């Protein structure tokens, strides 16, 4: 995972590989730290390089989204694979998460 702050007030967490219990803990910590930074208006999780996500990872996304919304910040998932998009849709999360960078998600927006 890498973290990059932009000049526009966004922080990007670039996730790769498997997001399981161990990886979710690190992502959660980095996500909350990014949202706590002064001037952070948007937390973007770039999920394009993820090969696996378990329920712990998705639960952390919901937690980060809730925190961001409570502090008038935006939470974005960028670049989900077709498989991840299907999972989010089946779980009813595609409609509440801000998903960008996937053709199906962009058609719905």
Feature tags:
single chain, 109 residues, alpha/beta, Transcription Regulator spoIIAA, five-stranded mixed beta sheet, 43% helix, globular, disordered C terminus
- The string of secondary-structure elements, in order, is EEHEHEHEH
Cα Rg: 13 Å
Which stretches of 5+ consecutive residues score pLDDT under 50?
Answer: 103-109
Overall number of structural domains: 1
Shape: globular
Compute the separation of the termini in Å.
28 Å
User: Major sheet: size, sense and barrel closure?
Assistant: 5 strands, mixed
Describe the structure.
The protein is an alpha/beta fold and 109 residues long. It has a single domain (2-103), classed as Transcription Regulator spoIIAA. 43% of the residues lie in helices and 31% in strands. The protein has 4 helices and 5 strands, in the order ββαβαβαβα. The protein has helices at 21-36, 55-70, 82-90, 103-108; strands spanning 2-5, 10-19, 42-53, 74-78, 98-100. A 5-stranded mixed β-sheet has the order 1-2-3-4-5. α1 (21-36) runs parallel beside α2. It is globular and about 35 Å long. The model is unreliable at 103-109 (pLDDT under 50).
């Amino acid at each position: 995972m890498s973290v990059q702050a932009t000049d526009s007030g966004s922080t990007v967490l670039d996730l790769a590989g498997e997001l399981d219990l161990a990886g979710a803990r690190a992502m959660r910590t980095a996500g909350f730290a990014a949202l706590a930074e002064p001037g952070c208006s948007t937390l973007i999780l770039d999920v394009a390089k993820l090969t696996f996500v378990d329920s712990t990872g998705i639960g952390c996304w919901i937690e980060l989204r809730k925190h961001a919304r409570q502090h008038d910040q935006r939470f974005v998932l960028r670049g989900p694979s077709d498989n991840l998009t299907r999972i989010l849709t089946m779980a009813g999360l595609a409609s509440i998460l801000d998903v960008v960078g996937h053709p199906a998600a962009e058609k719905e927006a």
